[in-house]
Amino acid sequence: MNRRHVFAGFAVLGAALSIGGCASRVQARELLVRRDAGCGCCAIWTEQIAASGRFRATLVSVTNMAGLKQQLGVPADLASCHTATVDDYVIEGHVPAREIERLLRERPAGVIGLAVAGMPLGSPGMETSDGARDAFEVIAFGSRRQVFARYPASP
Q1: CB 93 within 8 A of CB 35
Q2: Spatial CA neighbour of 138 closest among 89, 78, 85
Q3: What class, spelled out in words, does domain 28-151 have in CATH?
Q4: Pairing state of beta strands 82-86 and 29-35?
């Protein structure tokens, strides 16, 4: 084996590693967030979701949130202050980014979305300066309902 073969081998190896690195990068998904005008926590949640690097989030104000939620199939008892869509899924309320990522990775059968009902203190976008958090659940909904994740309360 001569010097030219060794360098050629390193060039091929470098190219393969470079291609593998590109393939492992995750492309940010488009996430559209709709809210009633003036809701501040919705903007904070949207900023946090975008900061994860996994989503390109756009926030828009709409006049008929109840109609939008109904159209998208959000159960009334799971409603919150904002409604997002990503990859044909509905994200209702203050759902943590990691649960959205998990939904998109696992794609469970019969699930059309995730919801955090209401506006639990300490959930993403509803943080407090003292770090207090209410317990809350992330609910997967669609043809059936199930608890997708649980977050305990903190003092």
Answers
A1: no
A2: 78
A3: alpha beta
A4: antiparallel
Domain boundary assignment for the chain = 28-151
Among 24, 8, 134, CA closest to 126: 134
Tell me which residue of 151, 83, 84 sits closest to 123, measured CA to CA.
Answer: 151
**Inter-residue contact 131 to 110 (CB < 8 Å):** no
| 76-94 pLDDT, tens digit each | 999 999 999 999 999 999 9
Gap between the Cα atoms of 11 and 134, Å rounded: 55
Res 37: pLDDT: 83
pLDDT > 70 in the chain, percent = 83
Query: Quick one: tokens of 52?
Result: 């994860």
pTM of this structure? 0.81
